[in-house]
Amino acid sequence: MSWDDVKREMVAEKGLDEAVVDKIGEYVKLKGGEEPLTQLQADTLLASHSLASAGLKDMTLLFSYLRVFNILPRISFDLSLARGLDSLPVSSTKPSP
């Protein structure tokens, strides 16, 4: 599905404002190694949102581990893959040890 299709769905079916959808589009188009994290950290809108800030702190920690284990050069983040995560089923059971 193209971004234009996703945008149309978000505006027409979900009722989101087009300006909001355009901002989401800026985020989901981010790809790469550390570049997406750097760009997201520089976004003042995200920095003012507590859940987004917490997520960025988690990503920062993850990237520090990737650096320590020297696998960062082999990692590429694609934020467009996050679309639809809110519709995944959530299990309340814990995995077996």
From TrEMBL:
Organism encoding this protein: Tilletia caries
Gene Ontology MF annotations: histidine-tRNA ligase activity; RNA binding
Record's protein name: Uncharacterized protein
An annotated GO cellular component: mitochondrion
Domain of life of the organism encoding this protein: Eukaryota
GO BP, one annotated term: histidyl-tRNA aminoacylation
Record-linked InterPro entries: aa-tRNA-synth_II/BPL/LPL
